[in-house]
Write a structure and sequence with these properties.
Elements lengths: L2 H10 L1 H6 L4 E9 L6 E5 L3 E4 L15 E3 L8 E5 L8 E6 L11 E9 L6 E5 L20 H24 L2
Parallel strand pairs: 1-7
Antiparallel strand pairs: 1-3, 2-5, 2-8, 3-4, 6-7
Length: 172
């Protein structure tokens, strides 16, 4: 497998993502149910729980139970599109949420639940429903058959005519 294929498999293969030994943070947020499908921005707090141990402490977080996210709020801003269905909650796995240096976090597991209001630090950015394409009705019209079909019909007509001519000559 080439380097690009290996990189894609690490991004698209859930088992490869789970096997990643780099730090993973976890944040739970709520958004209004009608935000499903919308683009949102989330200001990640300066401390997030460890996604591996859920705050209990493990080797992935240095037994601290979480990860620090340094920087000002604009440096901790993550923009993402919500899925079109939020019933039961969803977990979005965001790779390198803060760029390549990642503030030490390789993955952010953003757990999104439908609620009555948005959690602190969560803002709606773009419409959940794209504009519907305009459908214009056209009058039906005759369409010429493709060139290949016309050639085949011409050759068939010539073959039938030749067969009739041969039959006429032999039948005399």
């Amino acid at each position: 497998m080439n380097a690009m294929g290996e990189a894609l498999s690490r991004v698209l293969d859930p088992a490869a993502l789970d096997a990643c030994d780099k730090p993973r943070g976890r944040l739970v947020i709520e958004v209004p149910a009608d935000w499903a499908g919308a683009v949102i921005e989330v200001v990640i707090p300066t401390r997030v729980a460890c996604a591996r141990c859920d705050g209990g402490g493990c080797e992935g977080c240095g037994l601290r139970g979480g990860h620090r996210v340094p920087g000002d709020p604009t440096g901790r801003l993550v923009r993402t599109r919500l899925p079109s269905a939020l019933e039961g909650g969803v977990v979005l796995r965001i790779l390198r949420p803060f760029g390549d240096d990642g503030a030490g976090i390789a993955q952010l597991h953003l757990e999104v639940r439908a609620g009555t209001a948005a959690s602190a630090g969560v803002t709606w950015c773009a419409s959940a429903v794209p504009e519907e394409p305009r459908i214009e009705r056209a009058e039906p019209r005759a369409v010429a058959p493709p060139l290949g079909a016309r050639k085949a019909a011409t050759y068939a007509t010539i073959a039938v005519a030749l067969a009739a001519l041969v039959a006429f000559v032999l039948g005399r």
